[in-house]
Fold this sequence. Notes:
The protein folds into two domains: 1-32; 34-310, 4-Layer Sandwich (Purple Acid Phosphatase, chain A, domain 2). It has nine helices and 13 strands. It has helices at 4-31, 64-77, 94-99, 102-110, 127-137, 186-189, 197-211, 234-240, 307-310; strands at residues 34-41, 81-85, 115-116, 147-148, 161-166, 169-177, 193-194, 216-222, 246-249, 260-263, 269-273, 281-290, 294-304. The protein has a six-stranded mixed sheet with strand order 5-6-8-9-11-10, with helices on one face. A five-stranded mixed sheet has the order 3-2-1-12-13. Strands 4-7 form a two-stranded antiparallel sheet. β1 (34-41), α2 and β2 form a beta-alpha-beta unit.
Amino acid sequence: MLNRKSFIRQAALSAGALIAGPALAEAADYLNPYKLTILHTNDTHSRLDPFPMDGGRNQGLGGVAARSALIQKIRAEEEQVLLLDAGDIFQGTPYFNIYKGEPEIKAMSSMNYDACTIGNHDFDAGMENLAMQITRHANFPMLVANYDFTGTPMEYKTKPYKVFKKGKLKIGVLGVSIEGRGLIPDALFGATKYLDPVQKANETASVLKKEEGCDMIICLSHLGYQYKDNKVSDEVLAKESENIDLIIGGHTHTFLDNPVEYTNKKGDSVIVNQVGFAGIILGRLDFEFSKFSGKKLSKNHNISVSQKTGD
Length: 311
């Protein structure tokens, strides 16, 4: 049985703990960062199998089996992971010629991709086919904010953005793609209306920031990394953007050894990354979020995909 002095001391300690509890929790949030791992691919072009062992420079690289094993390993090690693709899922091997994209979409679904954007070659078997493959086989959304598919088979098959909850973080992901006219045959692009990707990206990012309250905004882009003329690219988008933190690119098959950092219209940093083609590289970007130091890229690693790394 407690004596009077012990009772008072214990009561005081308990009261102090109740008062300090929220403050300690807030201090922990302030000092200890939340972590997010972003894995990404682009321009996989129906490369379901590794490149053949024929003496070529890419022999033995790629393949969905090795990629899937890597993804599973990283997910087992990290608590919060996003898996994203920047378009041109289709075209490039007999798999597409025969099956029109079904095995590619099924493979991505089995790997639990969180989202993708659309590439010009994803139209190669027609919009009706793309709409069918997404409807029947995709368990992830195709995001594109600057294509108006009204009155086409792709109407209602895409979204401009999606918000993902990763622990205490809200991550907004949007998509933009390249001008189809002159690149995609009219018979395949149909009545699709191409809208200004910079304008639509900024409009969508504003919604994600101001209305959805996202902690980070990612743009999946199939615009291409950079061009010698004034064609809209990831470089142009980064410089003209507002509220976008990261651009994951595709289309130009650019192998960036490290992400490139640009300054946007607000004077904030925008990171751009792209990992070549054919799924021979799995991009990995690790971010940390804290009230003390804000949001920062803590580590990046372009992982070579092969049977050896997939073991």
